[in-house]
Amino acid sequence: MPRPRWSPTPQQMMILQDLYRKRMRNPTSSQVQKITDHLSLYGNIQCKNVFYWFQNHKARDRQKLRKELLHKMQKNPSDDDDDDFPAPQPQLTPTNTSNILDYNFPANFPPTLHTLYSHSPSMLIDQAEGKDTSSAQMMNNNTGNVDFPKQCVIENGMIRTNVQDWVLMMIDMGPNSIPCCSNRPLETLELFPIKATGFKE
Amino acid sequence: MPRPRWSPTPQQMMILQDLYRKRMRNPTSSQVQKITDHLSLYGNIQCKNVFYWFQNHKARDRQKLRKELLHKMQKNPSDDDDDDFPAPQPQLTPTNTSNILDYNFPANFPPTLHTLYSHSPSMLIDQAEGKDTSSAQMMNNNTGNVDFPKQCVIENGMIRTNVQDWVLMMIDMGPNSIPCCSNRPLETLELFPIKATGFKE
DNA sequence: TTTATATGAATGAATG
DNA sequence: CATTCATTCATATAAA
């Protein structure tokens, strides 16, 4: 019982980040399952940990991004693509191989700001009166002092390569393991009833 | 050089405390923004500092409260309403001035211990039994490292009645304390438009 | 210098 | 998926 809270080991973290980097966003249960299995090689871990990790990581990533964009656009309303901010979340296109982990993702992932503001495009102009994202975090952007909370980053490149293969494999489990990271279950199968994700019910 | 860690200046601190005293608890992003702007007059500060400040302050406040209550209850299990403890969080009602710093807040704020245990302390149960839904909740069954988030599980009604209800009952807050502790800006005014984000209700 | 405490920062875990 | 809560980590400062 004394496992109050899971804490990812460096290796686990690295793998997760790698998957994330490869655009895994909403892993299906079976993916979570597999990932968990694999990660358990490096330390205790449960499915929920993996699940939550992706949830949080994605959320915080996007929040940060959102704020960066906002901030940027405020300064540069007309021109916004001259910078260097990280890449948002494109949708992957699952291959038709039988491996989930083998995602084909758009070689170019248009930042799809769209996904960032899928439900409230108007928030870009929330400065004065305040359309509000609610406190959760904007953590950033201010009169002049920006600076986001740094995400924990695992260094240690060596281990990285080690995992590479597995990750790649992971990313492709085939269609029946359910498509990778689409936010909306467009290709949902019987096992995964859509939850009406993006919509405001 | 690197300002490793923000440290509020006395004036900043004072303002923050004042807002907190006025029951600001979960400032929205625009509120955070405004506050940050204002506080930057007195020293370097970023949105995240403000955000974290509220998070931490609230958390520690409630933590302390919780402890006090517990302590008290241990000594005085049957009598607990002779006390003087501080008050938890109602929502502020923004004035129609354009300054956040002068908020009008509800004159009455029933302690609403409710807020202290707003979500089920299901901490007691940590075994999940799984169905198999979509990735989000099935969360279970695995080689050995199972356990997905149990979200709605909570078997055994008894656990349900845990701390929350119990504490409430012990403390006697009266029925009318319930209404006030909404987490969302129910009484948000023009200054703090709700974001209508999820709108899941 | 070492230890204890206050608190900023970060993130896991939920809930709705 | 947005929010919020609980914990924990990290560091600055006070105390010993």
From TrEMBL, chains A, B:
The record's principal subcellular location, in a coarse class, is nucleus
**Pfam families xrefs:** Homeodomain
Task: Tell me the compartments it is located in.
Answer: Nucleus
Output the lineage of the source organism.
Eukaryota, Viridiplantae, Streptophyta, Embryophyta, Tracheophyta
Key words, A-Z: Developmental protein, DNA-binding, Homeobox, Nucleus, Transcription, Transcription regulation
* Entry GO CC: nucleus
Show the ranges annotated as biased composition (Polar residues). 90-99
In its UniProt record, which GO terms are filed under biological process?
plant organ development
- Which terms does the record give in the GO molecular function aspect? DNA binding; DNA-binding transcription factor activity
Q: Where is the Homeobox domain?
A: 1-64
| UniProt similarity note | Belongs to the WUS homeobox family.
| UniProt key word rRNA-binding | no
Q: Where is this region: Disordered?
A: 74-99
* Name of the protein this chain belongs to: Homeobox domain-containing protein
- Summarize which parts of the chain are annotated to bind DNA, as ranges: 3-65
